[in-house]
Amino acid sequence: MKKLSMIALFLISSTLVWAGSNGVHSLRGDVALDASSVAGSDKEWLADGKVNREYIQQPPLVPHDIEDFSINQEGNDCLNCHNWNSEMPGATKIAISHFLTRDNQALVNISPRRYFCTQCHVPQKATSALIGNMFRSLSEE
Ligand code: HEC
Ligand code: HEC
Q: How far is the CA of 121 from the centre of ligand 2 (A)?
C-alpha cells in the first residue's frame, strides 16, 4: 500500500513538473506556434542520384530540390517531367498505380488521389534519425 502511494505521489509530482515546463515539446524545437520555425542547416543529399528503395511498397524518395515546383488547382509542376508523355530524360515516369481510382478503374490521366505528390514522395537529405528506432532496410538484411 505504501509503495502504491509512493508511486502515485511520484506521478503527481512529475505531472506538475511537466505542466510547469511550458507545455508541448515538438520536434520542430521549442518555438512558439505563431513564430517562424528555425530554418534547418543545409545538409548533403542522401545519395548522388536516385535513392535505393528500402521496402517494396515505398514511394521513391525525391533526389532533387522541389522548392520551385508547385502543386495546386492550377497545375502540377512535377507532372511536367514525370507524366507518362513528358519528355524529360531520366525522370522516372509515374507508375501505372497512379492512374487507378480506389475501385481499380484505370483513368486516362493521373488519379486525383495521386495528385499531391509530396503527400508520399519527399526529398531526403543525409541526416540522423530524429528519434532512435530499430528499422532495418531490406538491403541491410
Ligand atoms: C524539371 C524536371 C523535373 C521536375 C519538375 C520534377 N522532377 Fe522529379 N526527377 C527529375 C529527374 C531528371 C529525376 C531523376 C534524377 C536522377 O536520376 O538523379 C527525378 C527523380 C525523381 C524521383 C525519383 C524516382 C526514382 O525512380 O527513384 C521522384 C520520386 C521525383 N523525382 C519526384 C518529383 C516530385 C514529387 C516533383 C514535384 C514536386 C518532381 N519530381 C519534379 C525531374 C524532375
Ligand atoms: C498516395 C501516395 C502517392 C502519391 C500521392 C503519389 N505517389 Fe508516386 N508512388 C507511390 C508509391 C507507393 C510508389 C511505389 C509503388 C508503385 O509504383 O506504385 C510510387 C511510385 C512512383 C514513381 C516510380 C515509378 C516507377 O516505375 O518506378 C514515380 C516516378 C512517382 N511515384 C512519381 C509521383 C508523382 C510525380 C506524383 C504526383 C503527380 C506521385 N508520384 C504521387 C505513392 C504515391
A: 7
